[in-house]
Specification:
The chain is 59% helix and 0% strand. By secondary structure, it is mostly helical.
Length: 217
């Protein structure tokens, strides 16, 4: 289990691990940005940003809580790529992103990312976010690790297209969910929030303690 966990962590191309002050301050700076239809990314192209924002809203749609883009998760991820992520990791993310959206375009018959809709993105997410066996996840993580090590050493790595798409979809979901849950509104109004923590109850019933809500970060 330790080996499997290590492989997964090494495969996280977005590179986040903890809620560092840098990430939290970056998230705060993205709080009052325009809706994604009028948004111009700083790092991604307009087409890539539009597609990513649509994908985030498929992963975290508007229900009785706001959607991902209403919480400016797309703006945060673009800023994170632009201001925080090392250059070689950014190149890796863009490579995987392009392979993912090339698949979306091919399957939908659309020619431009500006034309895609949630219904075009959902089949790809269902494919690449489906639960895999431990053995399959290990194989994917090892392939990603071998690729990144080859690039880091100045060589030319190769990565199966489906593994690249799998990695992008899972990393986008994980970072998007982290940013969403870390936003001020979700943390204080949707999740269970205690600005001044009190008694520590390690084994209490969640329904009793918070009304069934997960704790805010």
């Amino acid at each position: 289990m330790e080996r499997r966990s290590a492989l997964k962590n090494m495969g996280l191309a977005f590179g986040y691990a903890v809620a560092t002050p840098t990430l939290l301050s970056l998230l705060q700076s993205c709080k009052d940005k325009p809706a994604f239809a009028e948004w111009t990314p700083n790092f991604l192209s307009k087409e890539q940003g539009y597609a990513m924002a649509q994908t985030l809203d498929v992963i975290l749609p508007k229900t009785d809580t706001p959607s991902a883009t209403e919480m400016n998760v797309h703006t945060f991820i673009d800023a994170y790529l632009d201001e925080v992520m090392p250059l070689e990791q950014r190149d890796f993310v863009i490579m995987k992103m392009n392979k993912f959206y090339d698949k979306v375009l091919a399957d939908s018959g659309k020619e431009s990312l500006m034309d895609i809709e949630p219904a075009d993105i959902e089949p790809a997410l269902q494919t690449y976010l489906r639960k895999r066996s431990d053995e399959e996840e290990d194989a994917h993580s090892e392939a990603i690790m071998a690729y990144t090590e080859a690039i880091r050493e100045g060589g030319e790595g190769s990565l199966d297209d489906d593994i690249a798409r799998f990695s992008f979809a899972n990393d986008l979901r994980d970072l998007g969910t982290w940013a969403y849950k870390s936003s001020e509104y979700i943390g204080e109004e949707v999740l269970a929030y205690a600005p001044i923590p009190g008694e520590y109850i390690p084994c209490g019933d969640l329904e009793t303690l918070t009304g069934g809500k997960a704790w805010s970060l």
